[in-house]
Each structure stands twice: as C-alpha cells, then as structure tokens.
Design brief:
Layout: H1 2-36, H2 41-50, E1 55-65, E2 68-77, E3 83-89, E4 95-101, H3 103-113
Antiparallel strand pairs: 1-2, 2-3, 3-4
Length: about 110
C-alpha cells in the first residue's frame, strides 16, 4: 500500500508541477506580447469602445493573429446577447476589424480556446 501511495503522490506532484509550468509559460508568453505592444490596453479599449457606442468590454486579450499583434475585445451592448469583437493593432492603434457575433458563435469560440 505504501508504494501505491508513494506512486500516487509522485504522479499528483508531477501533474501539479506540469500545471505550474504551463501557467508560468502562459505568463511568460503574455509578458513577451506586452513588451512588444506599443499601445496600452487602456488606449486600445477606448479605441474599441468608440466603435460600439454604449457598449462595455466583456473580455479583452492581447494576441498574435495572422502575424499581427492585436488587442481583441468582446464588447456587449445593452438589450442584446450578441457581442461585437473589435480588434485594435497593438503597434499602431488602428482598428483592424469590427465583427458582430451572435451569442452562439461567441460560446463556440470560447469552447474552441479551451
């Protein structure tokens, strides 16, 4: 029994260490992207919100998409479950795209990121 407990503990520790490593790697990746960005999140948010009057940011992230460093914001508008995704170039501050997404499409997109 002691050997089984020891093996179980070692496996659990290995899994825990792997999760910590994954978190650290994700944090390092985020820090690297932040260091490359010339436009702050706050400035990019203001730019994005200007495209969706009366909207509020539900979610935002800095990411590389199609070779470009962008701030991507999901903006909700009162009275609808749909969101507007606004992408702002993190180097120039220019709006890259504005797309309206249904609630179903948004849920599917979140599931794909998991």
């Amino acid at each position: 029994m002691k050997i089984q407990n020891l093996i179980g503990s070692l496996l659990a520790f290995g899994l825990f260490a792997g999760l910590l490593t994954g978190c650290a790697t994700e944090e390092q990746k985020e820090a690297k992207l932040q260091a490359e960005a010339k436009i702050s999140r706050a400035d990019a948010e203001r730019t994005a919100l200007a495209k969706v009057p009366g909207g509020s940011v539900k979610e935002g992230e800095l990411e590389k998409e199609k070779g470009k460093l962008i701030w991507s914001f999901d903006i909700a508008t009162a009275g609808t479950k749909d969101v507007t995704e606004v992408q702002v170039d993190a180097i120039t501050g220019e709006v890259v795209s504005v797309e309206h997404e249904s609630a179903a499409h948004e849920a599917k997109e979140k599931e794909e990121k998991k």
